[in-house]
């Protein structure tokens, strides 16, 4: 008698960042793909609002959102990188805390990864794995869903959006170097403890005077003293938070898509 070959079913995976688009996609697909596996690559430096929102989303989805990176957070990898802070040109944080955990989570299984790029974002593609066992799928693009549809999905679910959108335009680590000056000001105003913690990561070499900072413009204290260039993420009186976010969204300023979608 010959053993029948056991073929493993294709896995369906959706990575959540705590941002509006991936959250809306999870809501959109909840009943369409019941076998979906959800995951959240926690960097250990997430905003409390993000963690709260992921918990709420987990309740809504009715199944666990697997937290990746247990025990290996940003500080762990910072030490491995000789305490050199990441930067737009040296994104070891994205690689170690987002991309590698995602690919390890899948292993050699055949999987479809669902990405929350919308139909009105022709120039964005998100993270596409080069591993041949991982296929990528763009349900919003394929179904022609645009900004207003995302808003409707989030509103009708009752979840809305995380509170950090009142002062910040994207999800991600509280100290993310992609933040604009106004967002650093928002961090200082809303989470002074986290702002102080972000400052503690910055170093000045006493011998050379070289600065190791989050922003090329200087230390966070110096950055906040500079004239303000960007418009603040402010709630317009007549609008709800979600409307302001969609108005304020700057599609060309991608930052770290895998962290923020
Ligand atoms: S949110 Fe920013 S700091 Fe955090 S992992 Fe992504 S790029 Fe790095």
Describe it for me?
The protein is built from 11 helices and 7 strands. The protein is an alpha/beta fold and 261 residues long. The termini are far apart. Iron/sulfur cluster binds next to α4. Iron/sulfur cluster (SF4) binds next to α4.
In CATH, the homologous superfamily goes by the name HUPs
> H/E series, N to C?
EHEHEHHEEHHHHEEHHH
Q: How many individual helices?
A: 11
Ligand species: iron/sulfur cluster
Q: Count all strands and give the number.
A: 7
Helical/strand content category? alpha/beta
Overall CATH class: Alpha Beta
- Total domain modules: 1
What fraction, in percent, of the residue positions are helical?
Answer: 25-40%
Would you identify the CATH architecture?
3-Layer(aba) Sandwich
- Rg is 20 Å
| Outline type | globular
How would you write the strand order of the largest sheet?
A: 3-2-1-4-5
Q: Which regions are unreliable across 5 or more consecutive residues at pLDDT < 50?
A: none
Terminal CA distance: 51 Å
Percent in strands: 5-15%
- What CATH calls the topology is Rossmann fold
Give a nutshell description of this structure.
38% of the residues lie in helices and 10% in strands. With 261 residues, it is of the alpha/beta class. It has one domain (11-260): Rossmann fold, CATH 3.40.50.
Summary keywords:
binds iron/sulfur cluster, Rossmann fold, 261 residues, 7 strands, 11 helices, five-stranded parallel β-sheet, alpha/beta, two-stranded antiparallel ribbon
Topology:
Blueprint: E1 11-16, H1 20-29, E2 37-41, H2 48-61, E3 65-68, H3 74-80, H4 92-106, E4 111-114, E5 134-137, H5 139-142, H6 147-157, H7 181-190, H8 192-201, E6 203-204, E7 211-212, H9 220-225, H10 241-248, H11 257-260
Parallel strand pairs: 1-2, 1-4, 2-3, 4-5
Antiparallel strand pairs: 6-7
